[in-house]
UniProtKB/TrEMBL annotation:
GO biological process, one term: protein maturation
Keywords: Chromosome partition
Name of the protein this chain belongs to: Cytosolic iron-sulfur assembly component 2A
Keyword Lipid biosynthesis: no
Cytoplasm among keywords: no
Family of this protein: Belongs to the MIP18 family.
SUPFAM superfamilies membership: Fe-S cluster assembly (FSCA) domain-like
Subunit structure: Monomer and homodimer. Component of the CIA complex. Interacts with CIAO1. Interacts with IREB2. Interacts with APAF1.
Domain of life: Eukaryota
Amino acid sequence: RSFIVAHLSPVSDIIRTIRDPEKPNTLEELEVVTENCVEVQEIGEDEYLVIIRFTPTVPHCSLATLIGLCLRIKLQRCLPFRHKLEIYISEGTHSTEEDINKQINDKERVAAAMENPNLREIVEQCVTEPD
């Protein structure tokens, strides 16, 4: 159990610094992600389910899918343990949350999005640590 708690902090630390696609702020500064939005569950030996629930700044945020994509890419690259990743919009905080949840949790759609050079560049700008 304490191991799971130990994993919450690295997950929070990883997503805290992701930048908003439109604003100069991080997702943490905009309260899109908080420490409370991360859940880690053990699902096997040395494997964990990481659940992120983020809150877009406005209910019709056109960048919610992109933010979900940034969260997924950064965590896939940075998590130091085997994991499954589920990313959701906090319930009731977005007008098309169901569609977006499907999109950001669909491996093929995520892979296709990352093949788009424009989209990939935006994601890279959001997830790259400032020097």
